[in-house]
Design goal:
By secondary structure, the chain is α/β, with parallel strands linked by helices. The protein contains 14 helices and 15 strands. The structure holds pyridoxal-5'-phosphate (PLP).
């Protein structure tokens, strides 16, 4: 089976984890500190705060500065945590539609949703496609907003040559298995703001500013040194893993991208995509069958696929209950048609060719059977 993600640790990563396990120093300690410093340097941020997962990475930031009732502009086509962390911090996620081609936050729609309570814009570099940072920054400046970038899927993506981790005010990453970097469970929040970094460090340990002395309401969001040791090792091969993802995406663009009825995500101009996912939109009329039928056919051919996401945030029951029913036509269009094909760093050229051939076969088979009936 050609899987949708490759979640194998290297021998060096396993050895690093074992060394920590043998040392008995499991909790957040020297490995975490070193991982934070090395990650910050790699992405071009002044500070990096390691945490338990990507959700914690976002939540720490919002806990640090959000006031009750602050509104945060979030895209509708993303993972739940982009919005839930806002609500859990007392803010209100204001859900905006996305661009149907790049799948990223639509700033025109966001403009319509600005209010006197808007405090933050929180774009997501979805699937590794970097947002246009120039446009987002101009928007944030114009409306006097902070920016919280969700880079959970975008390790290594760049815009105009700058790593997405260097954008500020806050950039949050996830190291969940299947992500471009994976340590088990883990997250990282990057910022250039020293005061904010310090506050997030306290919040990560129950708002404790001195031993058993709590000045804020925080949580236990610490990363262990086992995960940090894996992350430190993996950082060394991030560029190599990205190079394979990019080669695979190029091959898919040349093959799958040219098949009638399939439309890959449009890469933001000026962006070097990190290809966490390679997603295509399946037009059932043009392609010959719909997204689900294509996914089922590919499974029979030994090719796994994924659906990210089958519904928008505005269609999540709890968010609909809290904030009311809304229509997001572009998101709904994408949610019904999107299919992720394997693109990860574990695939050989032959694997990618098999994926492309299988997609073409799906179309040929559907065409033949509809011609026969
Ligand atoms: C866009 C986005 N934001 C946030 C998260 C949360 O990360 P984690 O699963 O590590 O908590 C994810 C993870 O799937 C994600 O894809």
């Amino acid at each position: 089976m050609i899987d949708i993600a490759e979640i194998k640790l290297s021998d060096a990563e396993i050895a690093a984890a074992v060394a920590v396990l043998k040392s008995g120093a499991l909790r957040q300690g020297r490995q975490c500190e070193a991982f934070e410093a090395e990650f910050a340097e790699k992405v071009g941020a002044k500070h990096a705060i390691a945490s338990a997962n990507g959700t914690a990475a976002l939540h720490l930031a919002y806990m640090a500065f959000l006031e009750p009732g602050d509104e945060v502009l979030v895209p509708s086509f993303t993972f739940f945590a982009t919005a839930s962390t806002v609500a859990l911090s007392g803010g209100i996620p204001v859900i905006c539609d996305v661009d149907p081609e790049t799948f990223l936050l639509d700033l025109d729609d966001a403009t319509r949703r600005i209010s006197p309570r808007t405090r933050v814009i929180a774009p997501v570099h979805l699937f590794g496609n970097a947002c246009d940072a120039d446009r987002v920054s101009a928007f944030a400046r114009k409306h006097n907003l902070l920016t919280v970038w969700d880079a959970a899927q975008a390790h290594g993506a760049t815009f105009k040559g700058c790593d997405v981790g260097s954008f500020g005010d806050v950039v949050a990453y996830s190291f969940y298995p299947s992500k471009n970097m994976f340590v088990g469970e883990g997250g990282m929040t990057c910022t250039d703001n020293g005061d904010l970094a310090e506050k997030m460090r306290f919040l990560r340990t129950h708002g404790q500013t001195n031993k058993y002395y709590h000045t804020m309401l925080g949580l236990n969001y610490r990363m262990t040194d086992v995960e940090a040791a894996i992350g430190r090792e993996q950082l060394k091969r991030l560029d190599d893993m990205l190079a394979v993802r990019r080669r695979n995406a190029d091959l898919l663009n040349e093959t799958v991208g040219k098949i009638r009825g399939l439309r890959p995500q449009r890469v933001t101009e000026g962006c070097s995509h990190a290809w966490h996912q390679y997603c295509v939109l399946v037009d059932p009329d043009e392609f010959g069958c719909d997204r689900d039928a294509l996914g089922a056919y590919l499974r029979e051919c030994g090719v796994a696929t994924g659906v990210h996401y089958p519904r928008g945030l505005h269609q999540q029951p709890i968010l609909e209950t809290l904030y009311g029913r809304q229509d997001m036509p572009n998101t709904e269009y994408l949610a019904q048609r999107i299919l992720a094909l394997p693109v990860h760093h574990g695939l050989s050229v032959q694997d990618v060719e098999t994926v492309a051939r299988s997609v073409q076969k799906a179309q040929d088979t559907t065409r033949l059977s509809s011609a026969a009936s």
